[in-house]
Design a protein that fits this description.
Radius of gyration: 18 Å
Number of strands: 8
Largest sheet: 5 strands, parallel
Distance between the termini: 36 Å
Amino acid sequence: MRDRGRGWVHLLRPASRAFTNHGDELNEYVLPNVLEREVTWAPIGQEDVLAIGSVVGLYATQGGRGLIWGSGAAATQIDPALMTPIRDRFLAIRGPNARRDLGLPADLPLGDPGLTVRAFHPAARRRSGTLVVPHFNVYASATGRRKLAELRTMGYTIMSPTTAPREMVTAIAGAERVISSGMHGIILSHALRTPVSAITFSDGAPTALPYKYSDYNASVGLDDRLHSWTVGLSETEMAGLTETAVTENDAVDARIDELVSGLYKSAAPLRSRS
């Protein structure tokens, strides 16, 4: 509320699941399926495992104690003095850039745990429609909210970032295509083999992707690619965008299978803990 108050206020209208984020809450869906055991939430410092989210920095600075399985970093560096005592707690990390920049072993398994949904979430029998998955910061600006409203009137389905994780996964699995400014909208689309395009709702030309997005792209072997939100507004442009997304899906599919396999293997210590 302190740092993102304006966006959260607008996400309360109309009423929704207040102060939630489907990407971070995806843990409650992924962990029980992968670990085959019940999980409950705990604050940093009382946790047994840290998983989905760009939270390695918070873990290092706020006294994290659990094992780290596929979490990501939001910045290029963490104080080496904070990294030294926690390096042996990593079972996997999201991407190769963070693995390198944090001085972790070159053979540490990679992958965002959100990718594992392809191993247990049922496939959709048929696909239809286009989903827009905005980052919650889009709701913090009048421009962003106006653009979402315009997309909605043109027939696009807007999936609020406060959507329950299982509902979000099901919607993405059943969509023909996704355009997303939220990273886990992209990750889940790749996992579920739904064509997806990374977009920005900012005015002007697209800017460089944030560190965590580039780190994820590097993990699956994609070049950074960011489109203006206006790209999807004509059928011709959307067709081109979708064609590119389909090509990218084909390119990353085998790699994602490898990452998912590695994530399952690296989670073995979590299955055996009492």
